[in-house]
Amino acid sequence: MKVSHVSTADHDIVTTAVAAAEAHTSGEIVTVIAAKSNDYDDVALVWASIIAFVAMSAIALFPEFYRGIYDKLTGGWGHELTANQWLGTVIGVGVLKWIGMWLILLWRPLRLALTPRTILAQRVRARAIDLFKVGTEGKTMGRTGILLYVSLKEHRADIVADEAIAAKVSPEVWGDAMAALIERVRAGQPGEGMAEAVRQMGIVLAEHFPRGSENPNELPDRLIEI
To answer: Pick from 9, 109, 115, 121: most CB atoms within 10 A?
Structure first.
């Protein structure tokens, strides 16, 4: 059974906004919403490796301190570890730290929280471009398709435009639309945020690509969930 990311009301709000915006432009707006853009498994791998390295480095830098802990744990009855045994112990601690951190980071909210903002933005952008190439790029006669993509877990969105639009409208122009969208997504109103972004996108598109005498609806108006 498919899990919906937004309500039926949100779907209706966005679909209505797209239809209203396209009534004044030859541009075609596609809206897509996703739970997340990436699993960030590589981020968990890096963090686990960093923690393991720090733990092993701490033992190497302060051997007497950790030997003291060893003596306390053994009650002073433990035999003196050889160099090879001590090295094996250090490696073992590193492995345990790595596994422990990896298991902790199976909790995805923490994994997302530990992912740098630049990486989040890059992954959302990459996902938006992939979706654009599959469902929007070159799908209209005038190359006037544009994709609005929202990734909920990352609280991020992106806009990717076909070549005719990109040639006339710089990415900075979409800034107000993006700001309005993100503000509402963070407030738990993704449908209203996307609808407002679509409205502002429609104003820009109508200026550069006004509606012609023939204006077929070449791409779906409905909100697409993935």
So the answer is: 115
